[in-house]
Specification:
By secondary structure, the chain is an alpha+beta fold. It has one domain. Helix content is about 45%, strand content about 10%. It is built from 9 helices and 9 strands. The protein has a 5-stranded antiparallel sheet with strand order 2-1-5-6-9, sandwiched between helices. A two-stranded antiparallel ribbon has the order 3-4. Helix 2 packs across helix 5. The longest helix has about 80 residues. It is elongated. The chain starts with 7 loop residues before the first helix and ends with a helix. The mean pLDDT is about 85.
Length: about 425
């Protein structure tokens, strides 16, 4: 039976069905589309990861730099305490030498008495106790310097290359346009209870940034302390120990210099020191004290967390999404980008040194270590700072607090139903 003839349309459809030209083009188009989406996604992820690293570096540098300023402030307080004790001891020794016929140090006495200022017998002291005034100035000026350091360090990390333009001064005073469309990174220092440094009442000994108390009767702290008598007793005991040790050291120096230090001089120097400590300056020229001393157990950990730990937070606007119709950051609608780091002020232990590792003395073997004090007190000028894992409870409190001053306008995280255990799970510190 003969096959029916095909129409022209039939032949065209048959040729189209059998024609495989252009198949590769369609597959290539699909592949290009998929790879474009992957490229945009990869670019987006890489940009956000890079931004996260930069923000974390800014937070680390902010916390450490501001903590270093506070550590220097504590060292300055400790050195002032030592100078105070040395001055009292030297005045007592010079008076004893003068009583025993040695007037070598007579020209120096008026200067030392000027440093100590008016005795307690003056009804209205004119505020001339130089060491006390210097330490009081440190209590408010050092936290302010730490706040300025946090702002400056964070702002420099927000610059495109981390460098100021030629001729520029400080980064936080330059135009925001230098930091790009997102504006500068703003660094804020927090005490771990959730108190922002710069907004704290530095004249209140219970909450000031530096964990220091002023036990002197002419200072403002005694009226605010819960137990002022205890603070006075601790200060007098510490001063007597330090001044007594300083007096022994001064007498050794004088003996080594050829000045006669006999039994009479030692007796008169001890009596003169007692008169200075118990009469002339019983309520003044007292050493500043630490607010708390870490001890073993939960109370010691609480003291470390409350008084000696700080949180540095870096704030900035979120980076834009690359491929905004494909990717969306839900957090950006409610808060701004931030990163945080925690530091702790501490007194390092003396390091072991070589060689030898041990000295043999008449009292037995002695470890060869750095000549540092092992005491955690306000006379130890070895304060330092270290980065440490952030405390979950402190981080939770700070991250939900809105910054003020330099960080005004930034939106904190909303962590309404988040627990400290949740922070520990996601915390990378």
């Amino acid at each position: 039976m003969p096959r029916p003839a095909r129409s022209s349309e039939g032949f065209a459809l048959a040729r189209l069905h059998a024609d495989e030209r252009g198949v590769t083009s369609v597959m290539s188009l699909v592949a290009v589309l998929v790879f474009t989406i992957l490229l945009v996604m990869l670019t987006n992820v890489v940009r956000h990861v890079d931004d996260k690293v930069r923000m974390q570096n800014a937070a680390d540098a902010t916390a450490y730099s501001a903590g270093a300023v506070l550590a220097r402030g504590l060292n300055s307080i400790a050195l002032a305490n030592r100078v105070q004790s040395d001055t009292l001891a030297l005045v007592a020794l010079l008076q004893a030498l003068e009583q025993n016929g040695d007037r070598t140090g007579q020209p120096l006495q008026p200067l030392l008495l000027l440093v100590l200022g008016s005795p307690d017998s003056v009804e209205f002291p004119p505020g001339d106790r130089l060491i006390e005034n210097y330490q009081r100035d440190l209590l408010w000026s050092v936290p302010e310097a730490a706040r300025e350091a946090a702002l400056e360090i964070a702002a420099r990390h927000g610059l495109p290359r981390g460098q100021l333009l030629p001729g520029a001064g400080q980064a936080r005073f330059e135009a925001d346009s230098q930091s790009g469309p997102r504006g500068p990174i703003v660094g804020v220092l927090w005490r771990t209870p959730g108190l922002e440094v710069g907004q704290i009442n530095e004249f209140d000994p219970r909450e000031r940034t530096l964990p220091i108390l002023d036990p002197n009767a002419d200072g403002p702290d005694l009226l605010l302390l819960p137990d002022p008598d205890d603070a006075l007793e601790r200060a007098r005991r510490s001063r007597r120990e330090a001044a007594g040790a300083a007096l022994e050291a001064w007498m050794d120096v004088c003996s080594a210099s050829g000045i006669l230090i006999d039994r009479d001089v030692r007796r008169d120097a001890a009596a003169a020191l007692d008169e200075l400590l118990d009469v002339r300056h019983r309520h003044s020229n007292l050493p500043f004290l630490l607010r708390s001393t870490p001890e073993r157990g939960a109370a010691g950990n609480l003291a470390l967390q409350w008084d000696y730990s700080l949180l540095g937070v870096a704030y900035r606007q979120f980076d834009r999404e690359h491929g905004p119709r494909m990717f969306r950051n839900p957090v950006a609608d409610q808060s701004d980008a931030l990163a945080f780091a925690q530091v702790r002020l501490f007194l390092p232990r003396p390091r072991y040194r070589c060689c030898p590792w041990v000295f043999e003395t008449e009292h037995g073997p002695v470890l060869h270590t750095d000549p540092w004090s092992r005491d955690w007190d306000s006379f130890n000028p070895m304060w330092s700072v270290q980065l440490m894992p952030a405390d979950a409870e402190a981080a939770l409190a700070v991250l939900q607090s809105a910054p003020s001053a330099g960080g005004a306008g930034f939106r904190p995280l909303r962590l309404d139903n988040v627990l400290p255990q949740d922070i520990e799970r996601i915390n990378t510190h």
